[in-house]
Design goal:
Layout: H1 5-12, H2 15-18, H3 27-34, H4 38-52, E1 57-67, H5 96-108, E2 113-118, H6 128-140, E3 144-148, H7 154-163, E4 167-169, H8 176-182, H9 188-200, E5 204-206, E6 209-211, H10 217-228, E7 236-241, H11 258-271, E8 276-279, H12 288-296, E9 301-303, H13 316-326, E10 329-330, H14 339-352
Parallel strand pairs: 1-2, 1-9, 1-10, 2-3, 3-4, 4-5, 6-7, 7-8, 8-9
Helix pairs in contact: 1-3, 3-10, 4-11, 5-6, 6-7, 6-14, 7-9, 10-11, 11-12
The structure holds S-adenosylmethionine (SAM), 6-(5-methyl-2-OXO-imidazolidin-4-yl)-hexanoic acid and iron/sulfur cluster.
């Protein structure tokens, strides 16, 4: 990609200017950042990063699939969609006790946040008591909690917030223009509505997307523009590289150029200066040097543990070794202490003394 004259203007903008939190990005401005010479872009991203975060710290989250496969949605990238035959073994909602055992193992391995994901379009009311027990139990262990359960209505968002859920993950996935090529069973607006329920309920938002799905460079810019122009920047922004799974419609899509991926991280860092940018799915196919460049470009969060939801992730030991080589330290959890959370914690500790719930429904 060649540097254009507008890109040169973006390059000469001072880091103070580019690092302010803005919600009025234009596509031309985002494209100009992407078009910067690689070193100029990475230098700018690293400068913004250092203005907002402790350098050499990376937040680590561990994922668990609490309900696997047979999803009603038709997301073309997803091994869990019931529309495609990926040979994935379906699993009903896990028992609360099993989830807590996994959370403890993640904590023992050093994770500060535990993210629970379900292959649902949206949670059903009958599932909510179990979900709430999971949030309370994981919180009581001193871990931050995150869930991704599909669309939420405003009551469900409030219920989860009251139970003490810290983060809700719901991705925009791609640009509004490319979205219809990837998902037909729910709209972009449905996603924006869920995000607004999550924000209104007072939870932190984890929202990002996937690249490498055959989208154009303009689509990547438009996705970042959507994220940065939300009423509040998501506190956490996962940038996933498509994991190509056999049986999904995207299994044979062309690889995205590695530099284009690193540029996407850098532009995200500049546009979302106060957000944690997560180097998310796809790390298993990235070598150490590529991951190191992503950290230099401003990624400061990863999924940690040898499995994402259903696909592989680097071994935890390999990640710790990489951190050691790079002088990176895992970020300590940021303490959240509001009244609702304190109450949830006390409740959870009390409920730990009662027998756990077992779930029969799917
Ligand atoms: N079912 C819920 C939903 O979609 O809202 C939550 C779980 S879903 C698996 C969470 C996110 O995982 C998706 O929005 C997508 O961004 C990401 N994801 C799923 N399959 C992926 C793949 N093959 N490669 C990269 N990211 C993927
Ligand atoms: C996100 O943005 N990426 C994670 C998490 N949020 C839930 C999921 C990645 C899933 C990759 C495919 C799989 O393992 O099933
Ligand atoms: Fe279902 Fe989520 Fe996969 Fe889409 S991404 S098919 S909603 S599990």
């Amino acid at each position: 990609m060649q540097a254009t004259s507008s890109a040169i203007n973006a390059s000469s903008t001072t880091s103070t200017q580019v690092s302010s939190v803005r919600h009025n990005w234009t596509l031309a401005e985002v494209n100009a950042l992407f078009a910067l010479p690689f070193n100029d872009l990475l230098f700018q991203a690293q400068t913004v990063h250092r203005a907002h975060f402790t350098p050499n710290e990376v937040q680590i989250s561990t994922l668990l699939s609490i309900k696997t496969g047979a999803c009603a949605e038709d997301c073309k990238y997803c091994p869990q969609s019931g529309h495609y035959n990926t040979g994935l073994e379906r699993e009903r909602l896990l028992e609360v006790e099993k989830v807590l055992t996994q959370a403890q193992a993640a904590k023992d391995k050093g994770a500060s946040r535990f993210c629970m994901g379900a292959a649902w379009s949206n949670p059903k009311q009958r599932d909510m008591p179990y979900i709430i027990e999971m949030v309370r139990g994981v919180k009581a262990m001193g871990l931050e909690t995150c869930m991704t359960l599909g669309m939420l209505d405003s009551d469900q968002a409030k219920t989860l917030a009251t139970a003490g859920l810290d983060y809700y993950n719901h991705n925009l996935d791609t640009s509004p223009e490319f979205y219809g090529e990837i998902i037909t069973t729910r709209t972009y607006q449905d996603r924006l509505d869920t995000l607004s329920h999550v924000r209104d309920a007072g939870m932190k938002v984890c929202c990002g997307g996937i690249v490498g799905m055959g989208e154009s460079a303009n689509d990547r810019s438009a996705l970042l523009m959507q994220l940065a122009n939300l009423p509040e920047h998501p506190q956490s922004v996962p940038i996933n590289m498509l994991v190509k799974v056999k049986g999904t419609p995207l299994e044979n899509v062309d690889d995205l150029d590695a530099f284009e991926f690193i540029r996407t991280i850098a532009v995200a860092r500049i546009m979302l200066p106060e957000s944690h940018v997560r180097l998310s799915a796809g790390r298993s196919r990235m070598n150490e040097q590529m991951q190191a460049l992503c950290f230099f470009a401003g990624a400061n969060s990863i999924f940690y543990g040898d499995k994402l939801l259903t696909t592989e992730n680097p071994e935890a030991d390999a990640d710790m070794l990489l951190f050691k080589k790079l002088g990176i330290n895992p970020e300590q959890r940021q303490d959240v202490s509001d009244e609702a959370h304190e109450l949830a914690l006390a409740d959870a500790i009390k409920e730990q003394q009662n027998p756990p719930l077992y779930h029969a429904a799917g």
